[in-house]
Amino acid sequence: MKSSRRKFIKLAAVSAMGIGAARLGFLGDAPALAGDLPTATNFEEGLKAKHWGMAVFSAKFTPELIAKCRTACHTEHNVPDIAGQKEIKWFWGASYEESFPTEHGHYMAEKVEHRQFPLLCNQCEAPMCVKVCPTQATFQRPDGIVMMDFHRCIGCRYCMAGCPFGARSFNFQDPRPFIKEFNPLFPTRMRGVVEKCNFCAERLAIGKLPVCVEAAEGALVFGDLSDEQSDIRKALRENFAIRRKPDAGTSPSVYYIL
Amino acid sequence: MYNAKYIIPGILFFLALAFVPVIYNQGHVFEVKPELPKDQKECVLPTTEMRDKHMQLLNEWRNEAVRDGSRIFINAKGQKYVKSLTNTCMSCHPDKTKFCDRCHETVGVAPYCWDCHNLSPNQKSPIPPVASAAAGGH
């Protein structure tokens, strides 16, 4: 019938206009940003937990895998590549003896004795660095992450003296000339500032897991220690795990499964 | 008055010296024209507010983002922005020398943002080191 055809065309025209108008909606929105810049929507999908922690399947780690995780971390965070005593490290590897000096394993299983362990800031529950920081540049977030506010750091290095794990590095010089792989989305540091692993707080905020966890392909488990159903609690329930230097009393949130 | 022949010329000389900047700048219009983005009409806040208070806003942003983990800024119109100097501000104002520096150099301030923060989210390599005096002596 003629009239129904007219109606159909009218309806089609109106819907087409509607779709067109809907697509113009971006005019009132935040600017469309270049490439893979995180948007406000990404930040709304941030991961949340009561107590972030990490479990390390140390048997899966080879020096190569540690190097891979280290590169991923250091690239993400613009950590300078400096050899020697002025080294800056967020993620590194060490022997059993260096990693667990209080364990005193005399007659050890050879595979454990010769294993390299991946080390990073332990994100302690009772962090020494937070207690000693005179400017509260290092502070503990409600989700357990021990964070640094680089703006406030005065470079007194008390935190480096306080940390039982050597997880902190000091910028003795302008780090920028030593940054090999550069990530423009994350700031660099300046001379006279201490830095350390931040459990990828900037990635958790946009719903991504820490970059070392992604690079480790299952050898690192990241999750909420206060949630019984989480992957990390499952890993800790099923495997025997130790923490570094428990007698320092800082209660690390990084667990090593031997 | 004793010694008027010394004091009065002295006072006149002092006044002349004190007013040199005023006289020197008479007729000059104080005008700074930072280059505005061509594809964007409005900033996160109205222009006048940004002109007066961008430093306070950036300070609030940094404290809220770093310390409270609150990383989304919602302005009076309800638009959402990510609190980030490099990733938000510098996405629209990509050239620091044509935007930030034009005012900062005119009024003689040297903010130390760029000691750590990057100039733009598309930057290819870290900012090369500058002489410490040029960076404001930090």
Descriptive account of the structure:
The complex is a heterodimer of chains A (258) and B (138). By secondary structure, chain A is an alpha+beta fold. Chain A is built from 10 helices and 10 strands. In chain A, a hairpin with a 5-residue loop joins strand 4 and strand 5. Residues 23-35 of chain A have low confidence and may be disordered. Chain B is mostly helical and 138 residues long. Chain B has a domain at 42-120. Chain B is built from 4 helices and 2 strands, in the order H-H-E-E-H-H. In chain B, 15% of the residues are buried. The interface between A and B is medium-sized, with 35 and 31 residues. Chain B: It comes from Solidesulfovibrio aerotolerans. Chain B: The chain crosses the membrane at residues 6-24. Chain B: InterPro entries: DsrJ (IPR047668), Multihaem_cyt_sf (IPR036280). Chain B: Keywords: Membrane, Transmembrane, Transmembrane helix.
Structural class of chain B: mainly alpha
Radius of gyration of chain B: 22 Å
Taking pLDDT < 50 over at least 5 consecutive residues as the criterion, the unreliable ranges of chain A are 23-35
Mean pLDDT of chain B: 89
> From the 3D coordinates, which CATH architecture of chain A would you assign?
2-Layer Sandwich
From the N-terminal CA to the C-terminal CA of chain B, the straight-line distance is 52 Å
Terminal Cα span of chain A: 79 Å
